[in-house]
Amino acid sequence: MKSLRVALLGCGGIAARYRKIYARLAGVQVAVTVDVDESAARQARAESDASRWSSKIEDAFAPDIDAVVISTPNHLHREHAVAALQAGKHVLLQKPLAPTVRDAEAIVAAHGSAHRVLAIYMNLLDHPLFWDLKTLAGRGYFGRIGLASARLAHRGGLNWKAHQGFWRASLAKTGGGSFIMLGIHYLHLLHWILEDSVERVQAFASNFACPNLEGDDLTVAHLEFQKRTLAAVETSWCVQEEHFSLMGTEGAVHYRDLRHLEIWSENGPFEGRLLRLKGDGKPEIFDPLLPPEWDDAENPLNQHCQFVEALQLGRAPEVSAEQGLADLRIVEACYASAHSGKAVEVFRS
User: Fold this and answer.
1) What CATH number does residue 145 fall under?
2) Mean pLDDT on 285-293
């Protein structure tokens, strides 16, 4: 197995939830932890058994580094990902690919010239439930899926203030607001499960309760897929709930607040990673279904494990740069629709 020397670029925020995993992965050595916040870099070094820490971005692209795991704010993704690729490093980049399609296209172009792996980190794919749902949908257990819906909403934005420099409150630094930061999770998941592309969108967005944020704190996007499935994706930074639903001609599934699952199918039986359906289509395992921890190195579906395995075994990553760009085109179309009040066709290169 090929040994990999990894740099962690961006060690605070969301990275604090997964940085420990790199000390537990076989064949991996964290060479350096890098963050402009020295305390975050030092803490990450201790948790990942890194050789050193640094507050200098360029140290993540040193000659002894094979791969860079980037978890910096959206507006820095282009600068950091392009620099890493041009330095000959493989890259795992936190979603979204960039705050704008233009920046994302520049990253994809750099990837095309670098001949290195560029993967996008989507944490929902850590959860075996969604892999089972993809299998069920693909094998027709739900029949023809006509409706889908997803909601990812939390109230964190009520306490964020753009004027205090918090990047998630900034329109320019995030590329929008709640929809680009939260909605992109379920936009990607729907495309992945349905194996279909969004053709047209109509969206509504507003700043409802977070005047200190520059972007949307409420968005509802209606999506029309090429195979005529209709879906709604809702996001918020001022109200709280999460759910995911698929509804077909022969079955349906509803997953609420990361713990309650209702599922039925006219077809069966089914034996998956997590779910089992009896011959009559009724579930045997359905509650609770908590998602795995982000730093669970024993979870083979963990996207950090998957990234390392892709490099070690020479296979394609689960979420490619091109898929990340496609997701961002949908986000851009939804924002354009919300601004114009009209339906918008999704551009596909």
Assistant:
1) 3.30.360.10
2) 83
For residues 90 and 38, membership in a common domain is answered with: yes
Residue 107 domain flag? yes
- Provide Rg for the chain, Cα atoms: 20
Confirm if 327 and 187 have CB atoms less than 8 A apart: yes
Residues 180 and 97 in one domain: no
Task: Specify the 3-state DSSP secondary structure of 189.
Answer: helix
Q: How confident is the model at residue 92 (pLDDT cuts 50, 70, 90)?
A: very high
The helix or strand, by DSSP H or E, that contains position 29, with its residue range, turns out to be: strand 28-34
Domains of the chain: total: 2
Q: Is residue 155 part of a domain?
A: yes
Domain-located, residue 154 = yes
Helices and strands counted in the chain (H then E): 9, 16
Scan for tokens 């918020």, then name that residue: 236
**Is 149 exposed, middle or buried, given 0-12, 13-18 or 19+ CB atoms closer than 10 A?**
middle
Confidence of residue 288 (pLDDT cuts 50, 70, 90): confident
Please give the structure tokens belonging to residue 312. 């070690």
Domain that holds residue 69: 4-124+308-319
| Assessment of whether the complete model's pTM goes beyond 0.70 | yes
CB atoms within 10 A of CB 285: 15
296: left (phi over 0), alpha (psi -120 to 50) or beta: beta
Residue 329 neighbours by CB distance under 10 Å: 19
Summarised one tens digit per residue, pLDDT across range 171-181 is 999 999 999 99
Query: 171 and 279: one domain?
Result: yes
